[in-house]
Amino acid sequence: MSTFLQSQGLMNQTHFSIIEIDLPVVEGVCTVSGEPGFGTPLSCDQTSNATRTYKFTQVDAPFNIPESGVLRLIKSISETPAKLNSGKGLSSRGTASISFVDQFNKDPNPDAPAVTQEVTEQGSFFAKLAARNELTNKEIRIKNYRVESDGTIDLEFGAQTRHYIIEAVNPKKKDEWQITCKDELARINIGDSVWPLPLEGSLRADVDDSVLTWPVDANVTYLIGDTVRSGDEFLKVSAVANIGTGSATITTAARGVAIIYTSFLSSTEKDSHDSGDEVYVCEVSDDERIDDLLERILIDIGIDASMIPKAEWAAEIDEWHPTTRINTLWIESVSTSEVLEKILSNFMIDMWFDPVARLVKISAISAWQESTSTLSEDDQINFESISRKREENLRSTRALIIYRKDFLASPDSVENFRSASLFKRTELESPDLFGEPKTKRFEFSSIISKDGADLLVNRWVNRYINPFSYSWITPERKLNFNTGDVVDINSRSEVGFDGLRSKVSRAQITSIKPNYRAEGRDYTVTATSYEPLFSTGSEIIISGNVTDINLYIQYAGAPSEPVELTFIFDGTVGGSSSGVIPAIKAGAFPVGSKIIFIMANGADLQAKGGNGGAGADGKNGLPAPTTTPSNGQGGGIVYDAMGIDTDIYFSGATPSVNFPNADGYIRAPSGGDGGFDWQQVAAEGFIGGSGGNAGDGRAIGTGGDVGDNDGGTSTNGENGAEDGSRSGWGNDGANNNAFGGSKGKGVVDNGATVTFFGETPARYVNGGGDH
Question: What is the value of pTM for the model shown?
Fold first, then answer.
């Protein structure tokens, strides 16, 4: 005897299946209104006290089943497991359909008190089974077997078991019945469930826009720390009283203030509310991991925790979204499928139900996913069974998402969102390639952060540069891969420029459909191309105006293993939006990675200059004011290596074939000047001091504010000059009556080894950097 996997390699295989259904039964005493019953909870006054497993096999099963009670009633089996929906995140739901021929002169409950010989001979087996039992949502198992080479069968361990739940049992044409099945994720189908689960809260009386204690319903268990919504207003509950009674109240924190837990979640505005208005208890995601949120949604809608492989989920998120956290309020109950699709599509994660493992699986999408096996035509792929089709609907050269909605209760229209992230591969839009831009526009998002948005648009474009779908047949003995796997495909249809078979193509398995044929089982497999954007040593071109960029996320797509990448700054103009955010940072590359910068075509990387300090406030009248001016602010950082070894080519020869000569600059900004003291202009008159001048940089700092002027005139600080004529690059701000800000920094190592290459030192202005 051997297991299903142990016998998989048999050259000559005989296949059959057994369908199992577990149903509750009443053993022993079973009566209906004092008369004998029929042995099930529907046909007895007594509750169930046992379970009976009904077993069926094909009418033409090729042997004598060595076990009593297995009925030869299966006419056909059709199964369509879940299929990954590229770009949507949530897979299709798996389904199955089993057709049976009915049997007469047999009873499904032969030992029940009311089942006499007359009852056994009247009606049909399935008609009585359906009448006596509620079959909807009961577990059903498709157990696929092989006859071993010696003709033996291991009914206990020799099966691959595929799990579904019954959706309906219906009679078909004469003497036939059909059982239709669905997988566990069918619980999230549109109309079947919503999330968050609604609690039916309401106000018992009117409240105006200043009341802090609200009279609420007796139905909902309100808790301290909850956030509730009434109309468009959010409130955090700070105290509760008499919950569950007709005098229940909640006390809220100050009205009209932002909702903040660990992180900011939403702004709000106070309003008046009427008796009977909804009081909706929001679900809160406060720095919540993606896998934790997905888990609690599925459990809330009835997915058993045993079907959620949380350790696998956590490992997948740790590898591909290690720092991603979700911060939002879930402010209304909507279709669960809508909620899941929003989360999964925003973070490019696939979710599906595996009927063999009986688990809900997830897989993150990244250009850095590596293949786990190679599938070759005439081996794992049946000869001439493979087809390939371009998926033009997925192809994109650009991707855009608009995000950051501060007032969550406002409509989902563009004016209510504050940020956008765009990634583009303009080289793909040239006349020699696709000849046009093609943009994927994501739905507006209130759950994604800047890093998440940047990563999403990068991964989308790089995942779907030139997508193809594949379909082929795999024999059962060669099925050594699973849905979700990334594989290499070696096919005769994949040829190079010379007509010879090219290198293998990479693809993700999107579905594996068993075919129950008269001659045995095989599998229809579908896949979507998964071409890598990068490999170690790749060159990534960055051009145009860039600000506050994270190379790891925005351009490299967050690889999970150490890599060596070359970034070509092709005529790039770089800057930063503030003095505390680097213009360019390496990001969280895995330890052991290396970065190469090639400055090309006059690339000029700078950062924001420091702001000038404010002047001291003046005053009318004695005594003299005691105010002091403020210090200037420091200039920003141009490049923070964040511990990742980096080579930077400013001029001269480079290791790049496409950009053999470097030509560019890195220039640290200057700090802002300090502010000035107030000045006395009369016996009792003091005017505010002047603000300090701003430091030069790509984004020039702002001149310091003049002090409040009560007794005369004064001047504001001046902004730096774009040509550097005022303070130039890399200088400390001037010490006036207050100190000047520190000079900005060209390159900061943070533990990295950073090496410069070039012939002209003037191409680099260090400022307060490490070089």
Answer: 0.86
Q: What is the largest CA-CA distance in the chain?
A: 122
Half-sphere exposure of 387 (CA within 13 A, CB side): 5
Which range (203-212, 396-405, 535-544) has the least confidence?
A: 535-544
Q: Are residues 689 and 668 in the same domain?
A: yes
Same domain membership, residue 202 and residue 247: yes
Task: For residues 309 and 360, give the distance between their C-alpha atoms in angstroms, rounded to a whole number.
Answer: 7
CATH of the domain at 475: 2.40.30
Q: Which pair of structure tokens corresponds to residue 127?
A: 């008609």
Count of H-run helices and E-run strands, the chain: 6, 47
Instruction: Tell me how far apart the alpha carbons of residues 689 and 627 are, in angstroms, rounded to a whole number.
Output: 10
Q: Which residues pair with 171 in a beta bridge?
A: 177
Q: 517 CB contacts (<8 Å, ≥6 apart)? A: none
Instruction: Tell me the average pLDDT across 730-748.
Output: 95
Same domain, yes or no, for 487 and 387?
yes
632 and 504 co-located in one domain: no
- On the question of pLDDT at 368 being above 90, the answer is no
Nearest to 290 by CA among 327, 251, 332: 327
Task: List, in sequence order, every residue forming a beta bridge with 390; answer none if it has no partner.
Answer: 468
Look up residue 477 and give its DSSP letter. G
Angstrom CA distances, 550 to 451, 498, 581, stand at 8, 40, 10
**What's the confidence (pLDDT) of residue 724?**
38
Residues 342, 261 share a domain: no
Report pLDDT digits (tens) over 694-717. Answer: 998 888 888 898 888 765 556 666
**Whether 762 contacts 654, CB under 8 Å:** no
Q: Say if residue 618 is in the same domain as residue 511.
A: no
Q: Which of 414, 430, 463 is the last residue of a domain?
A: 463
Mean pLDDT, rounded, for 68-88: 90
326 within 8 A of 447, measured Cβ to Cβ: yes
Which amino acid, one-letter code, is at 638?
V
Tokens (6 digits) for 293: 């949120």
Coil, strand or helix at 575: strand
Q: Are residues 750 and 620 both part of a single domain? A: yes
Answer whether residue 667 is part of any domain. yes
User: Are 374 and 490 within 8 A, CB to CB?
Assistant: yes
Domain membership flag for residue 190: no
What is the predicted pLDDT for the residue at 311?
A: 97
Q: Which domain holds residue 329?
A: 286-364
Does the pLDDT of residue 723 top 50, yes or no? no
| C-alpha–C-alpha distance, residues 549 and 533, integer Å | 19
Residues 6+ apart with CB under 8 A from 719: 693, 694, 700, 701, 702, 703
Question: Using 50, 70 and 90 to split pLDDT, how confident is the model at 535?
Answer: low
Report the interhelical angle of 310-320 vs 290-300 (nearest 10°). Answer: 150
How many independent structural domains does the chain possess?
6
Q: Judge contact between 734 and 629, C-beta under 8 A.
A: no
Percent of the chain with pLDDT over 70: 93
- Co-location of 586 and 678 in the same domain: yes
Confidence bin at 188 (pLDDT 50/70/90)? confident
The answer as to whether 189 is a domain residue is no
Of 94, 93, 81, 69, nearest to 18 by C-alpha is 69
User: pLDDT confidence of 536, banded at 50, 70, 90?
Assistant: low
- H/E stretch holding 457 reads helix 450-463
Calculate helix-pair angle for 336-346, 290-300, nearest 10 degrees. 170
pLDDT digits (tens, 9 = 90+) for 218-245: 999 999 999 999 999 999 999 999 999 9
Q: Are 470 and 529 in contact (CB under 8 A)?
A: yes
- Domain boundary residue among 463, 482, 501? 463
Whether 7 maps to a domain, the answer reads no
